[in-house]
Structure prediction request, 139 residues.
Amino acid sequence: MFFEDIELGTTIRVGSYRVERDDIVAFARRWDPLDIHTDESTGVTASGSHLMAIRTLLLHQLPTREAVIVGAGWGNVRFHVPVHSGDELWLEATWLTKRRSASKRDRGIVTASMKLVNQSGVVVVSHEDTIFMRLRNPD
Prediction:
């Protein structure tokens, strides 16, 4: 799927990813060692950084993989509800905008609403993503 194939308003769902307790704790001990992420006596929740890493992993399952050049930024990042051990996550991408690059004729710029959704259908993380994508047939 290249820039030309993006249909605004279309949602694509990919995944899934099961969040494991050992992964939550290991990630947090290295990158975000707050008790809420590492204290197993009270239960652990995944850190926001960990969730964005999972989002990135799932992003590579989208059919746009061969066309993506680079991410240009995230906006309006929100962490809605905690993610616990055993939660299963999916990524939903909805295409919001697209335009050809004014300075680089071989690419376009798309924005997408990205949501990590858990096994109950609850959005746990949301944000907007801006992505530079290759054109299949540059002029």
